[in-house]
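This section describes the prediction task in plain terms. A model, or a person checking by hand, is given the sequence of a single protein chain and must write out its three-dimensional structure as a string of tokens. No templates, partner chains or ligands are provided. The sample shown here is typical of the held-out split.
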Amino acid sequence: MNHILYFATVIDPTKKLEYVRFCFIEMYGDELAENLIKTVKRGLEELFNEFRKDTGREANKTEFDKYLAEDVETYENFDVLKWWKLNSLRYPILLSLARDILVVPISTVASESAFSISGHVLDAYRSSLLPKMVQALICTQNWLRVSPTVNDIEEDLEQLEKVEFDLSKIVHETTFD
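The expected answer:
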């Protein structure tokens, strides 16, 4: 479970914990959803406490609880960053947390798989192939990708015919001179 993704959702005043709860219930059902919500809330509380210690501010958990207790914002064209700027005095510790969380580019793709072709080459069927066969398939795929197309061949043929024509003219001129 990617906690930072859920934390970013809770930090968004238009979503908060209600949206996470809705999604968990839809995906996992009521019982498991409540356990997952508790896990997300507990993780965010721990992160809040770390930020509280780092900022040196003395605040109790009421700042976090007060934020969650407020209604979800429902404005059209809502700007999350502007909201945090306007509410910085009400939630100074949460503001610091929001700044750090909302700047993280969220991706559900693991970085290793983003830069790897292994998942695109080896599916469940091909995973039983010998390494030499896999290498042969990869090489064949690479060769097919760079093989000339019909248009390239036609262009090359036209150029070759032109060169042959020019060469035959030169040969013809030198033999009759």
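For orientation: Residues 150-176 form the longest helix (27 residues).
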